[in-house]
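thought: user wants a sequence for this fold. calling inverse folding tool.
action: design(structure=
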């Protein structure tokens, strides 16, 4: 199953935190469907970002936004309840950090949240097969996680095609999300390949006009989806 149209999920990691609410509202005004929150712990990835309080702030800024929370942290089970309480609509965890992945996903779902599984660039798509029927979202990292503004890794396209095939083989219904290096130069090609959710950070929040950039990205994404087979 794919979404009826591609969805844009601006990542606040690239936003100006001194005017976070304003930046988010501009993105939503431009038509952004989801807001992506990257949670980093300085252990699983070489950077520290923010925690549940920031997710609460995003929820206050846009009460009706869909909050896509991406846990790039060790021992994510310890923090699931905190992010659910903060307002997360969907929580994604890395297969690399979850020795009991199925149980972790069940914990997220039982807390009333949608759940997703994430793979790093060097992790094979096959790692997602055992949970294909249990997830709402499969997230492919198209950069090495930890920092914004990195260049897109081209082999990601192969993973998208593999994931689409797996979804059909397993009779699954998860959406396919890409995170890292998404911008005007490749967003159309990504939706042509079958990507449903596109996380964009620097290309949105470091644009001169956030609202207009979001509109441009959505327009290009929709053009690509028309050619999706």
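)
observation: tool returned 229 residues.
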């Amino acid at each position: 199953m794919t979404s009826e149209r591609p969805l844009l999920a601006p990542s606040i990691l690239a936003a100006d935190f001194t005017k976070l609410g304003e930046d988010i509202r501009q993105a939503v005004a431009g038509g952004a469907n989801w807001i992506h929150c990257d949670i980093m712990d300085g252990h699983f990835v070489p950077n520290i970002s923010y925690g549940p309080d920031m997710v609460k702030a995003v929820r206050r800024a846009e009460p009706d936004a869909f909050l896509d929370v991406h846990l790039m942290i060790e021992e994510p089970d310890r923090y699931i309840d905190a992010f659910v309480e903060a307002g997360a609509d969907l929580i994604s965890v890395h297969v690399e950090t979850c020795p009991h992945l199925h149980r972790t996903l069940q914990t997220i779902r039982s807390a009333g949240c949608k759940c997703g599984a994430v793979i790093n660039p060097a992790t094979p798509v096959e790692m997602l097969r055992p949970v294909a029927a249990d997830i709402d979202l499969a997230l492919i990292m198209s950069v090495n996680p930890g920092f914004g503004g990195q260049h897109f890794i081209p082999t990601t396209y192969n993973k998208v095609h593999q994931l689409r095939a797996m979804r059909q083989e397993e009779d699954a219904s998860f959406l396919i999300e890409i995170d890292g290096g998404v911008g005007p130069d490749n967003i159309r090609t990504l939706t042509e390949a079958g990507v449903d959710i596109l996380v964009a950070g620097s290309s949105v929040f470091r644009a001169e006009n956030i609202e207009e950039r979001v509109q441009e990205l959505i327009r290009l994404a929709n053009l690509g989806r028309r050619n999706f087979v």
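thought: summarizing for user.
answer: Here is the designed sequence. The longest strand covers residues 34-40.
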